[in-house]
Amino acid sequence: MGNLTTTYQNIADILSYKSSIGKLEKTLSSKEFNWDNIVIEGSKHLVLPAIYCRLKSKGLLHLLPEELDTYLNEITSLNRSRNLSILKQIQALSTLFNEHKINHIFLKGAALIASGYYDDIAERMLGDIDILISEPDLDKAFTLLRAHGYYPIAQTLGSDFFEHRHLPRMKADEFICVVELHRKLLASDRDKVLTNSNTLSAKQIINGVALLSKSHLARHTILNYQINDHGSVYNSISFRAAYDSIVLLEKLNNPILIEKDKKITAYFNVLAIFFEDVPKAYASTNFTTRFYRFKLRNLKFYKFWNKTLKSYIYMNIVLKRIPMLLTNKAYRKALFRDRKRVLELIKSFYTKRL
Questions:
Q1: 287 and 341 share a domain?
Q2: What is the tens place of the pLDDT at every residue in 14-53?
Q3: Which residue, of 279, 297, 315, is where some domain finishes?
């Protein structure tokens, strides 16, 4: 696959609410159409169920090769079943926290499937249930979950010495999904809108579940990718985040009314390359979008560039931990005890193909 531009455009046209169904049908009907590329990239971006559901809603499932139709239908059915189980877990957590008066809101995929914004709950793939807890209730919530069958998953030593935006991930044998209790929404505290006080005071209640407000959910979807997942550094698209955004744009009548924000503007500029759903006010062509198109057309350079950026992000983490290494004896001892895993992590980082 030497050029991703066409594949990305095809995925966007399938997911989009604004693309021409007739034009898409003509494209997908071509004997030369490469479904393998759709499956490969759709799997990487965690949007295969969304692709299947959108093809179904557009009346285009008949264009799928028979084996692929069977495969995507099975994946979508499994994800639907999984999400229904996760929804029950969300409701159980909500009941538990409400009974103990813990101020909280569900975030990200958990908020999106609990809100009912998707036409089919199978559309969204998620791995964790993310919950923002007010600072005074954070330890209480963690202890409460432990008392109700949840236990922390093994974590890296860094979690013992550096504050993370969430507590150790927790799992319960009774439930399907891992839970993350967040102390803050973003790795960076620079955003003045998504503060804990703002988001907790503006939460909405849907079916008894506390969720981010519509505008906060839309904003967090963007900045979680741009900041927490380093999307603004990589200058690239995540089709899962992109689909979340266009669903919110479609269902909530363009709730993302924003002041000037470079990361949000850059996010929409990239989305607008492929999606007609992005309001024209948020779409512009500039060096960033032209460079992204160049990367998609030149995959060897794209992989090299991403590996360079990954090294940059990794080195930033290392440099921030040097002062702790020099001043904290306990950290040095913990690092030495964990040296085998750390060395393996460094080795895998530099040998892993992007």
A1: no
A2: 999 999 999 999 999 998 999 999 999 999 999 999 999 9
A3: 297
